[in-house]
Amino acid sequence: MVRSARNWAANDAPTYFALLLWLAANVLVFYRTFTEYMFEPKYYYLHEMLGIGLCVSRASASVLNLNCGLILLPMCRTVLAVIRGSTQCVGRKARRVLDGSRKFHMLCGAAICAAAATHSLGHFYNALNFSEHYNVKYPGVNAAAYHKQDPIQVLLTTVPGLTGVTMVMLLLLIVSTSSLAIRSGNYELFWYTHHLFLLLYCLMLLHPMRGILKEQLNLDDHPPGCHMLMDNTGSNDTLYLASEPEPEPETYPEPMVYPEPEAEPLPEGSIDEFGRIVTCEGPPVFATHAVEVWVWLVGPFCLYCAERVYRLVRSNSPATISRIIEHPNDVVEVQLTKEGFGAKPGQYVVINCPDVSTLECHPFTLTMCPSSTDPTFSVHLQKMGDWTESLYERLLPDTDATDETLPVMVQRQYPVLYIDGPFGSPSENVFHYDVSLCIAGGIGITPFASVLNHMLNEGMESSRLRRLYLIWVCKDITSFLWIAQVLSSLQRQAWNENRPDFLNIYLHLTRSRDVQILEREHPFLNSRVHVGRPQWRHTFDEVARHNARTTIGVFICGPKGMSRGIKRICLKQNKHRTKFEFHKESF
User: Fold this and answer.
1) E strand or H helix that includes residue 253
2) Distance, CA of 549 to CA of 327 (rounded, Å)
3) Concatenated DSSP letters for 390-422?
4) Environment class of residue 582 by beta-carbon count within 10 Å: exposed (0-12), middle (13-18) or buried (19+)?
5) Strand duo 377-382 + 361-368: pairing
6) Cα–Cα dist 192/210, whole Å
7) Is the predicted pLDDT of residue 238 greater than 50, yes or no?
8) 2-16, 233-247, 549-563: which has the highest mean pLDDT?
9) Are the C-beta atoms of 56 and 118 separated by less than 8 Å?
10) What is the per-residue pLDDT across 59-84, written as a single tens digit (0 to 9) for each?
11) For the chain, how are helix, strand and coil distributed in percent, rounded to 5?
12) Which residue intervals of 207-350 are DSSP H helices?
């Protein structure tokens, strides 16, 4: 199978277009700053002393500032949720770009690291040049105190140097604890070190204070190049005006024609077309160059802070736990209520439990949303780390459950939970297609559980969706019991409404072959169980055959390997001219 340009345009073209815009912005900012410090007259003396290091260090600083502002935008989750929910202003392709906000955050982080490394190396090269090319005539442009001063001393005795070294150390700490291994094994360490960016941004605002890079102020009185006419004693006050004799006046048959006033003036220290020496009126005056970092940071930083304050106010009141249901395979269902809380199917919330950690919080997809008649919403939690394990133990009773198959209803004193959200996710788009294909791996069923519950409570006619495929892959047969009751009820409802082809369920069991539990408890689903992994190409061909010339939304929440394979299939050409639009759930 070959790739289809039509499918590529539907899946990857919007993302690549946004990436090209980001690259163009970085290149434009780098080029503009580089040429400014290379050719602007006010940086003439500084460039003469530092050379290419000045241009590279300043251009990389502009790229660094740009990405430090952009990296905050994907973290404004409430703003993204509002934009995503505005279907009148934001189309399906634009929402697909918003789905990659987390990847864009990581991309900006990589650009920050590259720009910071380039900026640091450039300034170390500048320190060497400050030491080697100490200017005796114009001490105001120097950062070194004397000729051949130690470059390390030049850096560490200035505010920009000290703050720069501190920021590099902070950035190394943030990056080193952002790996997948740290996030999976010790999320608390990742969370706390990542929030050191607040200190990093404060240092960025202090970094240019009392800067070591100077620009010339009196360009009219002392144009660049005028230093060539200074006397041999090195005085800054005496101009050597008699270095060349005055030319003999020439006899012209007609009146002399002078240049028009609008013509560009010649630089000081040069000889005009009539042989006259153009002189300057005084020595150059230098001052610290204008600070620009706040221009890039203030807007995104204020937006981020305002959004965080809004989220703190919104999540200030705790939610009420109405029921805890223990499921097999270390999964617990938490049903909650909260006044004024509303959400859409596919969205997620961020949960904080002060009994586990005061500041640490984690995202969980809603498996049931509040409806017009029932304000209850729920999340499914599986033990996968220190935080979830601690919360799991606090939610369940201390007594041992004798039956691991049937859910255990518990009434007890529960810990306090604070709910922040809801926030948007790719699964919201399930109802924006006529045909949707939902693929889940293990606990990845949670985003689609809210979709199923919504259709069960609100009815199948509540959206434009006319056909839904659900493929759920699990290792153990008992995992299907998490939402087996919802699946059975919805399938029965579809038959009662004479829509047998609306819901197509495929349950794949990869390890356990004991299907007796499901057959005994939910016989309606027993015929949907398949032993072994799905044959993805055959499955997609069947879906395409039954929905020829249709655009199908493909939604997946599962392992990376499965996601990559399914995306490759979505990009392939099929003979039924069916277009698959790929959506991946990620936090």
Assistant:
1) none
2) 41
3) HHHHHHS-SSPPS-SSS-EEE-S-PPPBEEEEE
4) buried
5) antiparallel
6) 31
7) no
8) 549-563
9) yes
10) 999 999 999 999 999 999 888 888 87
11) 50, 15, 35
12) 293-314
Q: What is the pLDDT of residues 4-20, one digit of tens each?
A: 677 777 777 888 899 99
Write phi, then psi, for 212 (nearest 5 degrees).
-95, -10
Cα separation, 142 vs 131, in Å, equals 9
Residue 469 is classified by DSSP as E
Structure tokens at 440: 């889940």
Q: How far apart are CA 360 and CA 426, in angstroms?
A: 24
Average pLDDT, the chain: 81
Give 102-144 as a DSSP string. HHHHHHHHHHHHHHHHHHHHHHHHHHHHHHHT--SS-GGG-SS
List Cβ neighbours of 401 (8 Å cut-off, separation of 6 or more): 326, 408
Name the least confident of 101-115, 219-233, 437-451, 544-558: 219-233
Residue with tokens 């005055």: 246
What type of residue sits at position 359?
L
The model's pTM:
0.79
Residue with tokens 């499955």: 539
